[in-house]
Amino acid sequence: MRFYEYEAKALLRKQGVRLPDGGTAETAADAARIAGEIGGAVVLKSQVLSGGRMKAGGIKFADTPAEAETACAEILKLPIKDQMPVNVLVEAKAAVAKEYYLGVTFDAVAKLPVMIVSDMGGIDIEEVAETHPEHIAKVHLSTLHPFSDFRAKEAVASLGITGGELNQLTRVLAQLVRTFLTYNLTLAEINPLGKLEDGSFVVLDCHLDMEEEARERHQAAVLDGLGIGADETRQGRPATEFERRGARVDSVDHRGVAGRVVEFDGNLGLVIGAGGGSLTIFDAVQKYGGKPANYCEIGGNPSVLKACELTKVILSKPGVEKIAVIMNVVSNTRVDIVARGVIKGVVESGFDPAEKIAVFRIPGAWEAEGFKLLEKYGVDYCDRTVSMAEAARRAVEKIGK
Amino acid sequence: MGILIDENTTFIIQGITGREAVNMTRECLDYDSKVVGGVTPGRGGRDVYGVPVYDTIKEIVAKERIDGSVITVPAPFVRDAAFEAIENGIKLLVIVTERTPRYEVAQVLEFARLHGTRVIGPNCLGIITPGKAKMGGIGGPAANTKQAYKPGRIGIMSRSGGMTTEIANSLTAAGLGQSTAVSIGGDPLIGSTYAELMPLFEADEGTDALVIYTEPGGPMDAQLSLWVKENKSRLPIVAFMAGKFMDKMPGMRFGHAGTIVEGKADTAAEKLERLAEAGIAVAEEISQIPDLVRERLG
């Protein structure tokens, strides 16, 4: 889960990282007030969950509170990659002499966390890695031995950095590592870290991602304080109302998974699973010219209630004409339970399963019981001799392209 | 032949009294796997379908040789369960549990490396050497498992547990049996990647070709391509890539925790290019896999 810049900065501040003075503005008048309090040139930054803000016009500079007010009003109206800003971060403009990059993430090959340091900040680190690999230091961290600051020092020093700069960078990198460890982050990036003309360092921009799996343990202590609800899925963009409703279905009980949905604007609702199956089916629906209304993944043997509620959420989405129920050959999810849940959901939504379910293709555990039920309701179902792609094609054919 | 497990492999199940684990125990026993014990703290002295339950692994290893353990405990207990198995000298772990935080997975894998323990998963359905044994829920109930998997000479490695069985099913229907199928797990950090299992398949006289199921996200495919080129692998490989639609949706996670496009190297397009470079055949649909395998076998 990606944090907005202002939230990420709040987390860094808790670890003692130095940040520019400033605050968030909900309105243009707020921006004028904050700029007045800062009393000098300010930078105004659109708060969206996406990069490329500078290019899109989401970052502006102002010398006076009046200018800040105008700039803020413009930013608040400007969508960036289809996202409207939640607010505008107003900060003192820093006199930057040099920019650095500091990052902590996981290396999936070494299977360890890794610190990344570069004295070429302000640009994409992947680009620096390609063009100037000698300006990047990567040092892995043990997950069994305690973290100690000297590891950060070694990473910084390996770039040939010494003197006061070494000590200051070591301090910020160690603070970043502690932020990474404290909040179960998968990415903690300060880019750029600005070295000011007086020799001190300040965080200009940062990007923190918290692991989905760890959200629950940080909900009360951290996320509630930032106003981030448990149903706010934030997958690369803010969650839609439809997605929030799906997330609530998934949390009704701990049996299996059903409800993690992503909204699309098509007419074919998808009740699909599991992880890999959903990806395969979604590709196939698009390949045959179908327009999915949603992505979802059911698996891990969800309860009848979950499958039913998920079906109801999908059917309630405007524009959904039919649903396709497709999974790979299932091992632990029971065909009959999914069938019962989906049929119940369709009936409770006031529709006829035979008409509303374009195709049902889930072979595997308890399939005989499931098929019997589908037959009773007149639903078009198929067994393992029909491929997932073929089932997707049939569904698209029924609904029309 | 086959890799990792056979009819003599003994294993235990950690968290054996859990709802899904009880079913899995039944399924493994029905498939003639040697499930010799289970662990659930506080439930020592009971049994699950005749399999004795213990409080600690220490009690079991004092009595007999244990080759492996299937970990099914809830995510918050995975690290502790894995540490217990590793310290007690178990050399093969299958971690079924989903949603274990990444840092804790990294700790388990680092500890396992120190002790020479192989880890499959997390977030996987386990291993099957058809006709001999299965370790984990892979394939489901024994009757379903026997329907989808038949003994033969094709190896499978898959990031998706469900798709492992889907692929086996399509191979079986086409008359191609399997040597060993490994559900390697869908997490961003896993114990055994394709490249890390390659030496085992390469050395297995019972394997003639491999089928790989993959997804966007992570460096695993590039790592495999490199291994195949550097080691001049004797095995023809057919790959299937799901989630091509994700290339247009960076930053969003689909299917598995590790399936997300963050950088260019994560995209399906880029990965397919890497695989093709290494001479790996790519199937557009699952149903094409058997023919491509046959073609490659000549």
Give an account of the 3D structure.
- The complex is a heterodimer of chains A (401) and B (298).
- Chain A folds into three domains: 72 residues, 2-Layer Sandwich (Dna Ligase, domain 1); 130 residues, ATP-grasp fold, B domain (D-amino Acid Aminotransferase, Chain A, domain 1); 159 residues, Succinyl-CoA synthetase domains (Rossmann fold).
- Chain A contains 15 helices and 15 strands.
- Chain A has 401 residues and is an alpha+beta fold.
- In chain A, 50% of the residues are buried.
- Chain B has 298 residues and is α/β, with parallel strands linked by helices.
- Chain B has one domain: Rossmann fold (3-Layer(aba) Sandwich).
- Chain B is 35% helix and 21% strand.
- Chain B has ten helices and 14 strands.
- In chain B, the strands form two sheets. Chain B has a seven-stranded mixed beta sheet. Chain B has a seven-stranded mixed beta sheet with strand order 9-8-11-10-12-13-14, sandwiched between helices.
- In chain B, a hairpin with a 2-residue loop joins strand 3 and strand 4.
- In chain B, helix 3 runs parallel beside helix 4, helix 7 packs parallel to helix 8 and helix 8 runs parallel beside helix 9.
- The longest helix of chain B is centred in the middle third of the chain and has 14 residues.
- Chain B is globular and about 55 Å long.
- The two termini of chain B are 22 Å apart.
- The interface between A and B is large, with 56 and 68 residues.
Keywords:
heterodimer, A: 401 residues, alpha+beta, Dna Ligase, domain 1, D-amino Acid Aminotransferase, Chain A, domain 1, Rossmann fold, six-stranded antiparallel sheet, four-stranded antiparallel sheet, 40% helix, B: alpha/beta, seven-stranded mixed sheet, 10 helices, 14 strands, 35% helix, globular
For the biggest sheet of chain B, the summary is:
7 strands, mixed
- Mean pLDDT over the full residue set of chain A: 94
What structural category arises from helix and sheet content of chain A? alpha+beta
* Mean pLDDT value of chain B: 96
Q: Order of helices and strands of chain B, N to C?
A: EHEEEHEHEHEEEHEHEHEHEHEH
